Amino acid sequence: MSHVRIEGLTKRFAGKPPAVAVDNLSLEIEPGEFIVLLGPSGCGKTTTLRCLAGLETPDEGGISLGDQTVLDVRGKVNLPPNKRRIGMVFQSYALWPHMTVRRNIGYPLRTRRVPREQARTRIEEAAELVDCAALLDRYPAQLSGGQQQRVALARGLAAQPDLVLFDEPLSNLDARLRDQVRAQLHELHARLGFTAVFVTHDQSEALALGDRLAIMKAGRIEQLDTPERVFEEPATEYVAGFIGMSNRLPLLRQGEGWALASASGADGQAGAESQTVVDELPVPRSHSEVSARLRPDDLQLCPAEEKPPAHSVGLPAEVVDAQFGGRHMDVVVTVGGSRLHAQAPLTGKPWARSLSRGQRVTAWFAKDVAIYYDADGVRTAGHTPTAAVGA
Amino acid sequence: MAAPAVPAPSPTTTPPHPAPPHPTALTRARRHLPRLGALAFLAAIGYLVIAPLVGLQRLAFEDDARGYSAAFDSPDMAETLRTTAGMALGSLVIALVLGTFLAWAATRLPPRLRLLRVLPVLPIVVPAVAAVTGWAFLFSPRPGYLNAALRNLPWWDHLDEGPVDIYTLPWIVLITGFGLTAFVYLFVSAGFGNINAELIEAAQVSGSSPAGVFFRVTLPLLRPVLVYGGFVALLLGLGQFTGPLLLGRNNGVNVLTTDMYVAVSQSPVDYGRAAAIGSPLLLFGIAVVLFQKVILGDHSRFVTHGGKAFRSGGRPSWVAVTGILLYGLVALALPLGALVVVSLSAFWSGRIQPSGFTLDNFRRVFQESGITDAIVNSLVTSVISVAIALPLGFIAASLLLKGRRFRIIRAAVDFIVAMPLGIPAVVFGAGFLLTYSREPFILYGTRTVIVLVYVTLMLPFATRMQLSGMVALGDTYLEASRTSGAGALRTNTEIVLPLLRPTLAGAGALMFVLLTHEFTASLLVRAPTTQVMGTILFDYWANGSYPLVAAIALVMTLVTSVGVFIAMSVAGSDIFEKL
């Protein structure tokens, strides 16, 4: 098991202008920890992973795995992948089609000169772990996608590497299989306790698997924290948007209260005076302009004539579209030029089922379930986290 | 499912980074090893390809460029240049039109007749010398079979010879054009294959007529392929040697390649003049290769488009079927038929006499030691050359694909490897003859020099086919191997080579075919005692032993067909599309 340390890692790709894929990134990973790198495509998460594997040549920085310095750009050390004690699971599985499952899983053992008899038992153990013991003598082309990915998993783990790298391993699977393999992976990690770095753009995968999440933006880590804290207290507006707080409501201080900043007008501050919608928000006095971020299930709807409860922000809204979603309705409303998405529960309140385009409603949310970000996208102080208000 | 209850590690204070281990002299040397290896490789193929060309030019510039003045002060030079350009352009036009039509037709075949797609490629299988002699048997003014038949028509029955004279420029151009058609067909077919069917369907659904789809969507998408294929055909047309030599040489139709051959094969041998004559071809070839490297510098042209394969969307067309069959009849069946008839006859006359058919000519082919020696030579040198060219091509392709660290070496390898495709074989033949007839390598008259020139000519094919195989393989299999702890050597032997096996087999078989055909360069470097099939055929042609020529041509065709058959069965029927 290993203590992984990344220091000041920078990787630029040639071009005009050169693209900085990883920007002075530092990260420490505890032994046995499962780290998830989360971010949209192009944020540098895969490049970071490939630098860990030795598949890219970084421009600056250092990486050590345990007591082994595998990268030190200034000291001109950059060990090739085969000199690093790692395992890797690829998005496309990358099972060699000319080898049987047994030979695929056994390959990392052969390269590390594990004696034949020992390798044999370890191959079988690894296959057992991922429920592929019956497939050992088949060729990859004879396996289903889920089986292939489980074999790839077994291959990545077979040599008991210090560090296992996962490059979006679940994204080629269909939704149902993805959940299965994800659960299996989680269980395996709990049992074996390997150190892992897992790259994904899927927030539910990240929340489910990670001991800690690193949310990346433009080659940097925007927030590094446990899944619970990332989910409940996204540090920046970017993280909030990525982790599911998709509703954004720009607000301007107006006298003692707050008014909606018109989303349509580019000059929100100057003209476009609108009505004060709330007296007070848990935001320090120094801020005159914030945006509130909300999850769809924290935005409530009620008939226009009803008054929202106390300690909440009520907004006049117009329904754009309403879709049936099983236990809830997915409703898109406009509030002062902003499009918001509400998940209106249907249990006990069948009112939401009858919503139709053009209908006027009141959208409201409890003041303390929203998170407020300043103009730079940083979370404002003064917010005390509470459990999400259930619907 | 609950999130794992792992406490957030408190922010650790970072201890200073461990000092990097000091690089020892050994590790430093090992770091430079790949670069040295790449340099050594570059030096080897550089010498192979460039030394003969440099040797020729040095002679041409000796004594105040005497070679150049001898070549270009000659009153016939202007005429030769005109003929060369006319032949290249004329055959290019024929090949582009025919090749594009055939490629379109191949997409419009009814499913039952899909196999006909192979037909336009087959003329490549027939050795050029065999095809040209076949045409001569058909359209020679007096004894040509078809000429004799045409003279039975009422409006030509007063003629003693003709109406066609195969030994004149227009007919040489036409035959050359037929030969190039297969190449254009291959390029354009591959282009059709790379067009995503959904692009075509999108145009149809958007309301375009079939003609509108073809001209507004299909043809613009094919433009890069047409330009590239056109340039290749132009280069091949300029370097065309067999047709002009066998048909035009004795009738005053001279092109640069035949002039060059005459300069080094008839006494007094004048290498300087020959080199100077070849210079326009050399310069044009280098220009085209450079142009192609600059314009199509990346390997994106090898990347196949995602989505569904091309379907023309049109219904099967009987025009297409008729066109392909007609082409097959004219370009393949007629010349081969003529060869069969002549080879079975005791002598060549305008009349076909089935009663007099005999196998004597084939018996003689296998009895005369000169001919059997040539056949053995062809097979041995071809196999050895393939065995050498494949590993060279593998190294070159690996370097082109992964050698991003060695920018300059890589660019040089890229250029050198493409040169034998741009520069006519006759120039290489002359260069090799010159370079290996003197110190430090006196190899004239040996099989070795034939192998060397064959390897050189095959470098582009060996490299390009393996390169496209590697590109198709992608990086992930290799990365999976590296991260599994395998070094570069094990990755190559256990992952890359096994996965490339179909590509290797296909490339090997294709090169075997091209080499057993080889005539041009062989004719220049051969010695009277060291012949190959093509050159011995030419000698008998020059002697006028036509039935024997026909028999040798058929044996050559048979040998190549076996090669093609093996190639197709190991590498699939689309092997030619990987060119």
Automatic annotation (TrEMBL), chain A:
Residues 4-243 form the ABC transporter domain. GO terms for molecular function: ABC-type transporter activity; ATP binding; ATP hydrolysis activity. SUPFAM superfamilies: MOP-like, P-loop containing nucleoside triphosphate hydrolases. Coiled coil: none annotated. PROSITE patterns: ABC_TRANSPORTER_1 (PS00211), ABC_TRANSPORTER_2 (PS50893). The keyword Transport applies. The keyword Protein biosynthesis does not apply. It holds the Pfam family ABC_tran. One of its GO terms (cellular component) is ATP-binding cassette (ABC) transporter complex, substrate-binding subunit-containing. InterPro entries: AAA+_ATPase, ABC_transporter-like_ATP-bd, ABC_transporter-like_CS, ABC_transpr_MalK/UgpC-like, Mo/tungstate-bd_C_term_dom, P-loop_NTPase, Transp-assoc_OB_typ2. Gene3D superfamilies: P-loop containing nucleotide triphosphate hydrolases (3.40.50.300). Keywords: ATP-binding, Nucleotide-binding, Transport. This is ABC transporter ATP-binding protein. The lineage of its organism: Bacteria, Bacillati, Actinomycetota, Actinomycetes, Kitasatosporales.
TrEMBL record, chain B:
Residues 1-23 have a biased composition (Pro residues). GO terms for biological process: transmembrane transport. The chain crosses the membrane at residues 36-56, 85-106, 118-138, 166-188, 225-247, 274-296, 317-348, 379-401, 413-435, 441-462, 545-571. GO terms for cellular component: plasma membrane. InterPro entries: MetI-like, MetI-like_sf. It is found in: Cell inner membrane; Cell membrane. Its main location: membrane. Pfam families: BPD_transp_1. PROSITE patterns: ABC_TM1. Residues 81-292, 375-567 form the ABC transmembrane type-1 domain. Residues 1-24 are annotated as: Disordered. It is a multi-pass membrane protein. Keywords: Cell inner membrane, Cell membrane, Membrane, Transmembrane, Transmembrane helix, Transport. Belongs to the binding-protein-dependent transport system permease family. This is ABC transporter permease. It comes from Streptomyces flaveus. The lineage of its organism: Bacteria, Bacillati, Actinomycetota, Actinomycetes, Kitasatosporales.
